[in-house]
Design brief:
Oligomer: heterodimer
Number of helices of chain B: 0
Largest sheet of chain B: 7 strands, mixed
Order of helices and strands of chain A: EEEEEEEEEEE
Strand content of chain A: over 45%
Strand content of chain B: over 45%
Number of strands of chain B: 11
Radius of gyration of chain B: 14 Å
Shape of chain B: globular
Largest sheet of chain A: 6 strands, mixed
Helix content of chain B: under 10%
Distance between the termini of chain B: 37 Å
Number of helices of chain A: 0
Radius of gyration of chain A: 13 Å
Helix content of chain A: under 10%
Largest interface: A-B, 22 and 29 residues
Structural class of chain A: mainly beta
């Protein structure tokens, strides 16, 4: 069985400050890990993904995440928050990249303070 | 190019009514997924198709839920005798089997409200 825990259902940061959204996973086999972003009344958009290889993954809009097997974590970061980053962020895990169901966390709502 | 589309975007149903939700995947995408997203929660897997074959329906919450993809393209999720607990956003996603770049692309969802 696999699961995802996102610590903090709401995170607020000032514009220009560091964004850190936490994700821990549980998996009995090597996981594939994803971060998706959801804007109001829209579907989910992939930010970045980890499958194999380099553990530091860079995604769109300046986001990156690091896979740490020893900590079973895949935290999402961005050095400088922008107002347009305000959205809901979901971490997800699967066992077979593509064509395998995603198991999502409960999400973190990111608010940017002007 | 066109993404995943879903219709209707909003649906209000009286308890006990049947509803049908449609998903048009990205052209040529072999795989299609349905997820249910309750208010304030992350999406939860319902079912998965590869072409017209339903390979996994382990997430369907009851036998009132039925999904089909008869020609391997458009898919319909049907909910019979809707209950209030069925109120949620239903998300469809599709992906290609091509190489390493398989990513699930999501539609905007159908927001179902059962009164």
């Amino acid at each position: 069985a696999q699961s995802v825990t996102q610590l903090g259902s709401h995170v607020s940061v000032s514009e220009g400050a560091l964004v850190l959204l936490r994700c821990n996973y549980s998996s009995s086999v090597p996981p594939y890990l994803f971060w998706y972003v959801q804007y109001p009344n829209q579907g989910l958009q992939l930010l970045l993904k980890y499958t194999t290889g380099a553990t530091l993954v860079k995604g769109i809009n300046g986001f990156e995440a690091e896979f740490k097997k020893s900590e079973t974590s895949f935290h999402l970061t961005k050095p400088s928050a922008h107002m347009s980053d305000a959205a809901e962020y979901f971490c997800a895990v699967s066992h077979n990249f593509g064509n395998e169901k995603l198991t999502f966390g409960t999400g973190t709502r990111l608010t940017i303070i002007p | 190019g066109a993404g995943v589309s879903q219709s209707p975007r909003y649906k209000v149903a009286k308890r006990g009514q049947d509803v049908a939700l449609r998903c048009d995947p990205i052209s040529g995408h072999v795989s299609l997924f349905w997820y249910q997203q309750a208010l304030g929660q992350g999406p939860e897997f319902l079912t998965y198709f590869q072409n017209e074959a339903q390979l996994d329906k382990s997430g369907l919450p009851s036998d009132r839920f039925f999904a089909e993809r008869p020609e391997g393209s458009v898919s319909t999720l049907k909910i019979q005798r809707t209950q209030q607990e069925d109120s949620a956003v239903y998300l469809c996603a599709s992906s290609s089997l091509a190489g390493q770049e398989e990513t699930q692309y999501f539609g905007p969802g159908t927001r179902l409200l059962v009164l």
